[in-house]
Amino acid sequence: MKYTPRKEALLLLEDGTLFRGIALGKTGTIGGELCFNTGMTGYQEIYTDPSYFGQIILNTTSHIGNYGTLPADQESDTVKISGLVCNHFSTIYSRNTAELSLQEYFERANIVGIGEVDTRQIVKHIRNKGAMNAIISSEILDVAALHRKLLEVPPMNGLELSSQISTPKPFVLGSDEAEYKVAVLDLGIKTSILENLTSRNIQCKVFPAKTSFEEMNKWNPDGYFISNGPGDPAAMPYAVDTVKDIIETETPLFGICLGHQILALANDVSTYKLHNGHRGLNHPVKNLITGRGEITSQNHGFGVNEEDVKKNKHVEVTHINLNDKSVEGIRMKNGRAFSVQYHPESSPGPHDSRYLFDDFVKLIKNK
Fold first, then answer.
1. In this structure, are 54 and 19 located in the same domain?
2. Has 8 been annotated as catalytic?
3. What is the pLDDT of residues 94-130, one digit of tens each?
4. 139 and 175, same domain (yes or no)
């Protein structure tokens, strides 16, 4: 668990703002959209969440790495973030069940990062100016050269990423004796979502992002699940077309995060880029059906257009964000499909919203 390099590293933002710190992880250079997560724990789950593919994550909590890493905490098979920005990066860990320090973990995953920077200052900057591209380097310390490299990083708006991290071929999870079968469109699904489904007497067949409805329907599922994932939902007409076809059959459908946005687009409800997104474990949401509040885990940079939902004959709002009043949940008025913007599997995060998986089972049962 030695950590000796202590090399200098640079963080350069799209608007020219520069931060100097200490290198962590692998020596190298990486660019992506810079966004912040306010969660106080669960860093390994965050780093392996496929929804973060193409993004540099800034953790707002002061200490990162202090409990090491463990295979059981993975939300996918590999680290999905592009890079890490943090304040204090711990090279030792206290959890006796951990297998690797975060430094060793990042070195194996070829992740570049920067520590010992003023994360409060950076968060205030992008909170006010909005999420923007950035680049981290522990090898290019010439600012002009680094800026030229940053210009090569594509903007998140219009970027299709799900097909790059989706499963390359279908696979089945859960018992052959399960009561229900759910076809899962993998746009970047988390392991804990699949666990929440299979633990409810569901067998899942997980399909690649660009699978057609016809191909999924051959399995004769009782319901469909549209997963979370990275990128701009408006750049994914293939997924929108698949969901439109599912809707036509009136088979029960449940979508989470990117799946929520795809369900909206399939109903001619537009999406838009949020100023700096919602990422953390403490976002308050109100369920408009029950009147109850939920503390939720969130990770998204795009939202669903509220005005479009209000004008739509087929869709209604079911949940709203109590911070900014943005749409957090919708359902089709025929009762056959629903979705939420946040993460009810809550890994990491509170468990207030896991009832949504039970609601999906009830919908299948009563179809």
1. yes
2. no
3. 999 999 999 999 999 999 999 999 999 999 999 999 9
4. no
pLDDT of residue 46: 97
Q: Give the domain range for residue 121.
A: 8-150
Residue ranges for the known binding site for L-glutamine are 51, 229, 231, 258, 261, 299, 301-302
* pTM metric for this prediction: 0.95
d(CA 148, CA 71): 37
Q: Which of 33, 45, 75, 345 is catalytic?
A: 345
Residue 68 sits in a domain whose CATH number is 3.50.30.20
113 plus 181 within the same structural domain: no
Identify the segments of the chain with pLDDT beneath 70: 1-5
**Known catalytic residue at 116:** no
50/188 Cα distance (integer angstroms): 5
Q: Domain check: are 177 and 71 in the same one?
A: no
Q: What's the pLDDT score for residue 3?
A: 45
